[in-house]
Amino acid sequence: xxxxxxxxxxxxxxxxxxxxxxxxxxxxxxxxxxxxxxxxxxxxxxxxxxxxxxxxxxxxxxxxxxxxxxxxxxxxxxxxxxxxxxxxxxxxxxxxxxxxxxxxxxxxxxxxxxxxxxxxxxxxxxxxxxxxxxxxxxxxxxxxxxxxxxxxxxxxxxxxxxxxxxxxxxxxxxxxxxxxxxxxxxxxxxxxxxxxxxxxxxxxxxxxxxxxxxxxxxxxxxxxxxxxxxxxxxxxxxxxxxxxxxxxxxxxxxxxxxxxxxxxxxxxxxxxxxxxxxxxxxxxxxxxxxxxxxxxxxxxxxxxxxxxxxxxxxxxxxxxxxxxxxxxxxxxxxxx
Length: 336
Fold this sequence. Notes:
Layout: H1 7-13, H2 15-26, E1 33-38, H3 44-56, H4 70-76, E2 83-86, H5 95-106, E3 115-119, H6 127-138, E4 144-150, H7 158-161, E5 165-169, H8 174-183, H9 191-197, H10 201-208, H11 211-227, H12 231-245, H13 249-270, H14 283-292, H15 295-313, H16 318-329
EC number: 2.7.7.7
Keywords: DNA replication, DNA-directed DNA polymerase, Nucleotidyltransferase, Transferase
GO molecular function: 3'-5' exonuclease activity; DNA binding; DNA-directed DNA polymerase activity
């Protein structure tokens, strides 16, 4: 297990979840089982490690783990004998993995009576694995804590859900995540855009170093510029650059997201929220545009992009979809 979050960071990123967890530890009312649910990259796994440190630390200060005792160090390195992590073996979590966990936990704790286990991607348990876990949850040992982590709680057996205290992890505030990216070495101009696209630190750092993404940003900004000229320019830019660069469905969806964020920035300037710009280096251009377009028209353009995203997911021909979008963004007729 690897922790990259402190209690203060947890409270800043997930105030409601942190309040619930802190309260349960402070009052010595730690639940037998928790379900951490929320989007990818919202810190669920890091918090499970933080929770383990808080429960096993030899020298906690008001529940804050010291980070330097033998227990904290072993949990950080993933080798504490009473803290177990179960992850999918291939595409699923199998019954043998849960049986092995139950066998391990039937023994008394190696270091103390406490034990904690974390099930990553809990929705991937097979039916037999889930039923085996259910028996485990129905007979909880007094000092055993379970943490199930999922992005899809609706895929988990209702009987398991009913035995867990659900803790919801919300999307990270963009400003908080942007600051986190800058601390990780991302340029201040690029950080707000990356924070608007993903909540996942690793994914954001990979995009930051990705030439494809840097080029995507340039192409999207250029398309926005030519959209203000005649339709022929925009359709030419679409053919020459966009369609060549954005090939796969996920790439086209990313391109549409990047385009949508431009129109959001212009709208934010109109609303006086210009501290929230994700294309901060385009401020001067966007300020001029904000004076020349109505907020109603901006709203129509953003709706057209969202509609294009929906049609993309419905498997509409990507080239036809983009040609229609370009005409819609310029106010031309729709031909589909």
